[in-house]
Specification:
Helix content: 40-55%
Shape: globular
Order of helices and strands: EHHEHHEHHEH
Number of strands: 4
Bound molecules: 2'-deoxyadenosine-5'-diphosphate, magnesium ion
Strand content: 15-25%
Strand order of the largest sheet: 2-3-1-4
Largest sheet: 4 strands, antiparallel
Number of helices: 7
Radius of gyration: 14 Å
Length: 134
Amino acid sequence: MERERTYIMLKPDCVRRGLIGRVIARIEDKGYQITAMKMMQLDEPILREHYAHLADKPFFPNLVNFMTSGPVVAMIVEGENVIVGMRKIMGKTAFEDAEPGTIRGDFANTTTENLIHGSDSPETAEAEIKRFFG
Ligand code: DAT
Ligand code: MG
């Protein structure tokens, strides 16, 4: 099996609610390695790139407001099949569909403020790592 890397971001609600440690513990408990990490404040231009696939959605302005409402924690996470694996640990996008035992299932109570971002394919992982880590 192939070692992969993915882009993970703890969103402003995760930071604000004091859940950074508990979410990172789940990543480490799984045996994945965090190989880069930084706290940063996002702005609208970088979010227009990052969420380009959602620019036409009615919730987009709200999403940008939320994502610029405080700092995020940006990470590169590595491991075997880590892209799919992290998506499983995160849980589904819509909070009401996210299973108990997943990060979103256990901690999210809205769909916008759902704690964590994880790349959804090898192509987006590389593009997102470049976008946020240069
Ligand atoms: P994911 O974050 O699971 O990859 P996505 O890329 O489709 O999901 O959407 C990015 C973020 O946009 C998502 O984490 C929360 C927000 N979002 C998506 N669909 C939404 C909806 N129907 N209502 C409100 N926010 C939504
Ligand atoms: Mg996505």
